# Entry
Amino acid sequence: MNQIGFMQGRLSPIEEGKIQVFPWSHWQSEFKIAQNLGFELMEWTIEQERLDENPLMTRWGRQQISQLCSQYCITIRSLTGDCFMQAPFWKSEGRQQRTLLEQMAEVLIAAASLEISYVVVPLVDNGSLENQQQIDNLYQGLDIIRPLLRDGNLKMVFESDFSPAKLLKLISDWDSKYFGINYDIGNSAALGYDPALEIATYGSYIGNVHVKDRLLGGTTVPLGKGNANLPLVFKLLKEANYSGQYILQTARAVDNDHAGVLCSYRDLVKQLISNT
# Structure
């Protein structure tokens, strides 16, 4: 059964004018707010800045996360690793590359200890693959960390700006048990990709879905106000037998009613799914 969750931070005040950051001052309170709003699913976020301080990365923090999940009936099934995009090992070399791979390994081990199933690796923006050397670096690095995915019962899902055919070529070279695709509705809309072609090409590899809307070539906007054909996307995902989760990575409220706007997006997605 499809589940609708939210990206961590969407129930916290906007910090530093950024649409998505780890909510350092409010991460614990989001659990109670989420339960009060009827949410049961949250996607964790982790950034390169203060990486080692993120609660996911400390024993005390993981204990707190587990306790809060139990207390407020919240499940964390996925993690968005913005840290991998902000400091991509595939764009580094030598000692720096080894350090970044070690950090990725530590994140995977921590995620597995909380029984997280999906780790999103953004191959977009600063993490975008720009040449064959970076692709080769990615392949080589993944060969190193693959045992951690197996041992931790984890699946790494890539969010990419590649065209459908190019993304299929990239992902089909890897074991689909451990590697898949995070389909970001808004990013694809901003790039002008045809969702019918995307999902027909690599739909079987989709393991996680980020729900947002973006203008063509532009930024995130409220659901239904951008270039995403939301009714078509949900219809196509259903026809592709997608049965995973939908994570609201949606636009923030302009009036600071972040809870209210998130609930309105959830209700819209519920309606779109039920209409397919």
